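thread: overnight batch results

M.L. [08:02]
morning all. the overnight job finished for the chain we discussed friday. pasting input first so we're all looking at the same thing
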Amino acid sequence: MRKTFCFALILLFLPYFLFSFESHNGDDEVDIVVLPASAVHNQDFFAYGKSIEISGTVNGDVYVFGGQVFIDGVVNGDVLVAGGSVEISGKVSRNVRLLSGQASISGTVGRSVTAVTATIELSPSARVGRNVVILSGNVDLESMVGSNARVYASNLRISDGIGGSLYAYVGSMRVTSKARITGDVEYWSNKNALIDSHAKIGGELIHHPSFFYSIFHGKIFKSLKIGSKFAALSMNFFYTLVIALILMRYFPQRVENSYHALNHKLFQSLVAGIVLVIILPLLFFALLITIVGVPFALTLLAINVISFYSAKIITIIWLARHIFRRFDFSKHRRLYFTFGLIIYYGLTLIPYVGTVVSTLALLLGLGGLVLGKIDQSEEKKIAL
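M.L. [08:03]
and the structure it wrote out:
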């Protein structure tokens, strides 16, 4: 439920970014993009606009950003889509990965579905060959899933077959009489799931009470601690976004130098970051124990706080530019950075993995800032 709450906050601001695209020519906004049913596109397909319709055949991957997205054709590859409303009723031979406000899948997906949405429905006509991973407010899973299903949602309804196990982090869950689950059903919730007596579960039924369970049982301190983490994470996301926009607007050269340092000296940046993390605190305490050095120590502390906070922004920019390398990053840098930031915070929510990701982001960002500054100084000397 913690992951669902944090991502729901992000989704509230998704429509603003989805409707802020510029057109291909920089003039009028693109209203509609259509790949007609008779068309065959023999390479990767890229599109963005208010409305996108893909009814033809794409022999490659599909990358789509739009207000409304309709895919009722054939995609012989992956589908990566971000939109306000997404409907997939055609055939996708490989994976579907989507980020949207509302989503509906009624077609066939050869491999897996990964979705972050406000609401999503997989209708009875849909078929998913492998796994389903969904983070959403409301999930209606009425389709056949070939392997495992992992769902993070406020409300979940299961009414078809799952070839593997179901893992659910939910507020409430309903398993109807039509459900056929081959493996285990393991769920985390403060409520008992409503499971129809005619539903078939081949494995074990395991219930883990959620963090709300602690509140209902009088563990107030623990619940307040968790609530403070929610607030801190939400504020951290928006503070990071604001600071990043300021850096990209007023210090573009510094950001560009740091990016190139990471791009061409990744290992050196990591080593430099590790050295800085060790040396800077030692230097701070060394100055602090001397009377003369106290003002310098406080100045160094302020610089450290600013550097440590902004360092991860450099790493996220580097990550976003690699993820969206097929697009014109400089033209839509604020948008692409926002998606990169969402991906970063999504990774940090994963236990253990999140610690590794945030630590690497800090170390690489610090190293990139320092090496970028050194490279800039050397270029100035050469120019002189």
